Amino acid sequence: MSLIPSFFGNRRSSLCDPSSSLDVWDPFQGFPFNTTSLPLTLFRGWDSETSAFANARVDWKETPEAHVFKADLPGVNKEEVKVEVEEGRILQISGQRSKKKEEKTDTWHRVERSGGSFVRRFRLPENAQLDQVKASMENGVLTVTVPKEEAKKKPEVKAIEISG
Asked: How far apart are the first and last CA of the chain?
């Protein structure tokens, strides 16, 4: 079993697919150093605030009627999430999970849940009805539904008789 898919988020989108996520993976994002010093300071100063929650998991399926996006956002309230359609048919899902204020008297043994912000962007296909986008959130799962235009019928071919 390879460690690479789990390290990179087990992404299924194709690099050649124009409708895949517009995320650009930067392996050095969050590292406060020049990449030429990589071996010496690999994990010194890692900014877990911005990187740990940066890659919200999103599924995108297409049904005959719509494109449906489902994002797992545990611990995020709907007031902390924004869904926008930008110029160029770009669907953007963004938000932030706030960290709870820590009591100074508490002793922490392990901290694995993180706070921070996230942004995911997707280029929608030509058949997306951008003015009909709907979003709902239930049990930490955001569902964004983008209806599709009805398939245009192919024009009938009418044979024209040539006179003369």
From this structure: 74
